[in-house]
Structure formats: C-alpha cells, structure tokens
Amino acid sequence: MVQKCEKFTVSGTVQGVGFRYHTSYKGMSLNLTGYAKNLNNGDVEVVVCGEEGGISKMAAWLKHGPKTSRVESVISEPFSFKPFQDFKVL
Hints:
Residues 5-90 form the Acylphosphatase-like domain. This is Acylphosphatase. By secondary structure, this protein is of the alpha+beta class. The chain has a single domain (3-83), classed as Alpha-Beta Plaits, CATH 3.30.70.100. 24% of the residues lie in helices and 42% in strands. The protein has helices spanning 19-29, 52-62; strands at 3-13, 33-38, 44-51, 70-79, 87-89. A five-stranded mixed β-sheet has the order 4-1-3-2-5, with helices on one face.
C-alpha cells in the first residue's frame, strides 16, 4: 500500500460554485486526504494524498468536477508526501 501525493491546479469556473466542498467530499469518499483551496487567479489548487488508484479516480473526476462548475483545464504535478489527517477546504 504505497502512499503518494499529487497536486492539481484546476482552471475554469471553479470558484463560487461549491467546487472545493464537492472535491473534499469526493476525496473523503475515495479514502484520500489533502486539501482544496482557492487561488488568487481564480483557479483551485487540490492536493490529494493516498493510494494511486484513488488519486487516479480523483484526477478523472477533477476533469469535469461537480455539475455547478465548468472545468477548462487540469494540470497535475508530483507533490512531496505529507500525512494529512483528512480532506480540508481551505
């Protein structure tokens, strides 16, 4: 059971539409930890930690997000592993 982390930057209509809260709920349902936070440029940063299968499912979900959002792009990059306790909305 290898644990890893990945950081995603999600662009589009992703602020003011409940994106972070839906992302947190989805992360918890996949047994992932991390956080989702708004960035000053209108994007949302999502750090996801857990097993690779769960991270892959989250990556696929982030490409469309909740129905209230309109995702234009998702950029992923490796992130140093951190033992987050749960999935937070920052």
